[in-house]
Every structure is written in structure tokens, then in C-alpha cells.
Amino acid sequence: MKRTNDSKGGGARTTVWVASDHCTPHHSALAGCDRASTRVLMIESLASWREKPYHKRKLVLIFAAMRGFADDLGADGWTVDYHAECDDLAAALAAHVASAVPTRVLTMMASDYGEIDRMRSALAIHDLEIAETPHANFVSTGDDFAELFSRGQARVTMENFYRKMRKKTGLLMEGGEPVGGAWNFDADNREPPKKGMRFPAEPIVPIRPHVRDVIAMVERLFPDHPGVIGDFDIPTTRADALAYADDFFAHRMDKFGPYEDAMVRGEARLYHSKLSAAINVGLLHPLELCERAELAYRNGDARLASVEGFVRQLIGWREYIWQTYWRLMPEYRDRNTLGADLPVPAFYLDGETDMACQREAHRFVRELGWAHHILRLMVLGNFALIAGIDPQAMTDWFWYMFVDGYDWVMAPNVIGMTLHADGGFVGTKPYAASANYINKMSDYCSGCRYDPKKTIGDDACPYNSLYWDFMARHEERFAKNMRMSLPIRNWRGRDPETKLAIRERAAELRAKLRAGERI
Ligand code: SF4
């Protein structure tokens, strides 16, 4: 399907190739072009999306955002050469080159490593090169990151980088100092859930005709991909994404901070923004959202701890992992400092496990292609860390199953922050926790067949023995880490019989995981 016209007789010489996650009104390649002499090329490459088991909702988001963006560009006067349901990228490209006869091809910087090489080789047979313009959906530059390195640091800490970004953007700053007298209000953002908590209703996201078409296409062409599409509620146009953000700022922003780490049975979202999918596909810009958040604080509509936490996620953490990825790839993707080698557990594929917290997290992943950050980090990720799941396989799983996941997002988040497999570049200590943490921050344990207080025995929570076994397996390494001294001292202080029993229970669990059995 070609959504708009070709360019015969139009004298077009520039092609801007828009990638699937570059659906941004700030597209930097388009910014330097004029409508009369430019053709926008967009290709729905089915082969590349069939290569990996991507969640069906992720596929709907990507294709629908592309079609919505093409329509928006057309309405804005651009001529878009759109190739839908394209089985043969080379043929689509050849057709475009034949009709548009470009003398130059531009694209915005690819988000994932290796993507630009694939575009380059596809164009090479046409004797065309491709030039990249800067990525428009980030606030930082490689220089911002490099400058921190150049001060002689072995690693750049997120905290230093974040402060630099606050100064650079002026967000939540007053007279060169952070608003409220501190850079970080995380201490205020660790409330456990309260009994009977009620959360705002979900906004209605209109199912536009192009979304309906894409849902039918994904069901038809990707029937074996994981996940369900269900009532699709992810915005796929700029207008719908802005409306979704409006709803967050009106109903959730204020309480986002305190309950950021809370988990409540049956509640996927709580006060989280769920804006990451729209941001990472290009529909929303992190800076505009941070400015909205700051305005909410200045107007007295949202508390500072919530607003600062939200701003830190976007101009701090998101930018930090983006810069880490591009500075350390490609070798970063293969890091496995802790030598973890278990396969991804069977229940990460179908959600069938007796662990109530895991079952809930996998239900959200299956039905939404999304789970909030503490379910990712402390339920799904923490389990993979302490059980010793292969970091590359785990990164792939998060990338394929989450609607906001890309290689650039998941490599530093999973290999670095979650699995501590990067040698401590992203975080100086692993985010390892026993059932205590999940029991404190959720109401899952009361409905679980396992006992969060027990470490040994058939009904003992698997997180407990795996946690201590993790300390034992890496005792020598963690003993040298000041931030791990407490659990290591605790482990060393236990009597030999208890240690043996814990390690036997963990070995039994790990053997089951290795054999693909359920726990
Ligand atoms: Fe999860 Fe363990 Fe609590 Fe069950 S008891 S919900 S497995 S932390």
C-alpha cells in the first residue's frame, strides 16, 4: 500500500527515511528540508518485526504510530512514500529510488546499535549514502556525558549526570540551586500501599481507523507472537499522546512520587504515567513533559517529591542509559560479569507459576506489554538476578515483551541496573532483595502459596533461598564492596547447617529452572 503519491515530475532530490521509532514532530532530518524537494520514506518491514518474538501490542503500537505519523506529515504538507505490510524491504526501497530519484538520503540518528548499518547496506546497491542528523528525542549530547568522563572518573554516576542535566535545562532550578534545597527527594517516595487505595480511572484512548486496521493486520500476520492485544489503549498519534499526558498531569502526577515503588494486587498502573511507550516511539518529547510537570509544581497542583522524581526519570535516568548505551556498545551487550547462565524461566513465557508476585507481573506483561518499574526491577528483574538468569537472554525478553522496550533501553537497564552484569558501571551494588522487600511494598504475599517468612522447606518463598545463595555464590566479590557489607556479614554469621540447608533449597530451585520446570 502506498499511502500518498510518488514524486514523478516533482524534481524531488532529498529522501528522508523515517524509522519506526522516529515518529516525532521534532524530527531533525525533516527540520532541515523543504517540503517541495523532499520525499519522506516510511517502510513497514514485516521481515524485521518477524525476526524476534515481539509482543503483539508492541507491533500494533509501532505500525499504528507510523501510519498516524505519516498521516500527520501528509496533513502538514509533506509527501510521504509509505510502504505498508512490506514483505520485501529491498523491493520497496528500489521502488522509492526509481520514483523519487534522490540525490541524498537523510535519517535521524538510529536509536539501536547496528540499525544504521542495515540502512546503509540496503542503500548501497543504489549507490546512495545516508547521512544522520542528531536524535531529536533526547536532551543530552554525547559531549555532556564525555565531559564527565574527562574529569578522570572511571564511571559516570547517574547522580552527577542528572545534576548536569538539571543545570543544562534549568528544570527545577532557582538561582543555580535546586528547588527545595535538594537534588533528590527519593526518601519521600517509598510509601508502601495503603489498604483500600483507589486509583483514578483509565483515560479513554480512541481507536482510530488506522489503529483498527493495524490490529487486524497484526492478528493476521503475527498470530504466533506473544501477548494479547485486548482493548488497545496506547496512544499512537501525537494528539492522542498529548491528551493521555494531560490526563496523567491532572489525575496522577501529584501522587506519583510517594507510591512510585508500591505494588497493589489487581492494579497495573497505580499513579505511574505510562508515557514511556509514547515517548520512545517519538510522539512525546521528554522536555515538554518535564516542563508540564514543573508547571504543575509551580502552580501548586503537584508536590515537589513527585515532580522531581518524574523529572529525574526523564532527564536523568532515560538520558543516562541512552548515553551509556552509545558510549559502551557493542561490547556492553555481551557483558556477564557474574557469569549467570540459566535460561529464561518457562513461566516468563506463559506466566504459570505458584509465585503470586510473578504471576501478577506476567499477567500485566501478557495483557498490557507493560508493568511498572518496581515490578520490572524488584519482581521480574530481582528474581532473574538472584536466580542467575543469562543477562543477554533476559535483555532480549524485556526488549521483546515491553511496548516501550528497545535495545538501547533494555541493554543498560537489564544488563546494568537489574542484573549487575556490567561490572558495576550503571550501579555500584546489585538490586538484590529477598521476599521482605516484596512483602513490605505489596499485598501479594498474603495471597501466595509460598511463605515470605520462610527460607527453607517446600513452602518457603523462592526469593529467600535464592537471595542468600546469590550472596554465597558471589561472596568473595561482594565482600570487597562496601555497599554489600551488611548482607555479606549476615550470611557469614549464619551457622554452617543453616547455610547448607539454604544452599540445598536454592540448588533445587535453580535445577528446576535450568530444566524448564515451574516453581
Ligand atoms: Fe512473591 Fe514470595 Fe511473596 Fe509469594 S511469598 S508473593 S513468591 S515474594
What can you tell me about this protein's structure?
This protein is an alpha/beta fold and 519 residues long. Helices cover 48% and strands 6% of the residues. A 5-stranded parallel sheet has the order 3-2-1-4-5, sandwiched between helices. It has a two-stranded antiparallel sheet with strand order 6-7. Strand 1 (14-17), helix 1 and strand 2 (38-45) form a beta-alpha-beta unit. Helix 7 (158-169) crosses helix 13 (304-328), helix 12 packs antiparallel against helix 13 and helix 17 packs across helix 18. The longest helix has 25 residues, at 304-328. It is globular and about 75 Å long. Bound molecules: iron/sulfur cluster. Residues 355-357, 435, 438-439, 444-445, 448, 450, 452, 461, 463 line the site of iron/sulfur cluster.
Q: Encode the helix/strand succession as letters.
A: EHEHHEHEHEHHEEHHHHHHHHHHHHHHHH
The portion of residues assigned to helices is: 40-55%
Rounded radius of gyration (Å): 24 Å
> Structural class given helices, strands, pairing?
alpha/beta
Strand order of the largest sheet: 3-2-1-4-5
Determine the N-to-C terminus distance.
48 Å
**Biggest pleated sheet:** 5 strands, parallel
Ligand types: iron/sulfur cluster
Tally of separate helices: 23
Average pLDDT works out at 95
Taking pLDDT < 50 over at least 5 consecutive residues as the criterion, the unreliable ranges are: 1-10
Query: Strand-residue fraction?
Result: 5-15%
In short:
With 519 residues, the chain is α/β, with parallel strands linked by helices.
